[in-house]
Amino acid sequence: MTEPIRVRWIPYKKLPPNSKLVTRKTRWGNKYKMIKHGGKYSREECLKRFDKDLDRILLRNPHHLDELFGYNLACSCMTAGELKMKDYKHSYPHCHADIYLDKIKEIRKRRLRSG
Ligand SMILES: [Zn+2]
After folding, report:
1. How many A from CA of 46 to the centre of ligand 1?
2. How many domains, in total, are found in the chain?
3. Å from CA of 107 to ligand 1 middle
4. How far apart are the CA of 74 and the centre of ligand 1, in A?
5. Which residue among 11, 83, 93, 99 is least enclosed by CB atoms within 10 Å?
6. Domain housing 82
7. What separation in Å is there between the alpha carbon of 113 and the centre of ligand 1?
8. CB-based contacts of 89-93 (< 8 A; 24+ apart in sequence)
9. What is the biggest distance separating any 2 CA atoms in the chain, rounded to whole angstroms?
């Protein structure tokens, strides 16, 4: 099976195949907003807070992310490839979808091991 990736969603365009939308308008969005989007956090801070919340949710419900398993995740953030092309300095993770994909990978590995 190919590893799911983060893909770019362009508003009003069709979603890339085999992907699920995780933008703020969906229930998978990151509720923490960056300063440049009218919020009060840096990108890094938004992602840290999101990551912490997600860990808490997964403790309560280990199946929280199951319905995203196997899908590419689409967000309006630029992909690593696009960032590179624009020569932006960026660190990983860049988007909350990166965090989802990492967690999903971890969970699936753990489940495979425990049978
Ligand atoms: Zn994003």
Report:
1. 11
2. 1
3. 21
4. 8
5. 11
6. 6-114
7. 30
8. 91/44, 93/47
9. 45
| C-alpha span between 109 and 97 (Å, rounded) | 18
Would 30 be classed as within a structural domain?
A: yes
Q: Which of 16, 22, 43 is nearest to 32 (CA)?
A: 43
| pLDDT tens digits for range 10-57 | 988 999 889 999 999 999 999 999 999 999 999 999 999 999 999 999
Q: What is the pLDDT of residue 104?
A: 98
- The pTM assigned to this predicted structure is 0.93
What is the DSSP secondary-structure string of 60-92?
Answer: H-TTTTGGGTT-EEEESSPPHHHHHHTT----S
Type of residue found at 104: I
Residue 64 counted as domain residue: yes
Residue 1 in any domain: the answer is no
Q: Does 94 score more than 90 pLDDT?
A: yes
Q: Give residue 112 CA to ligand 1 midpoint distance, Å.
A: 28
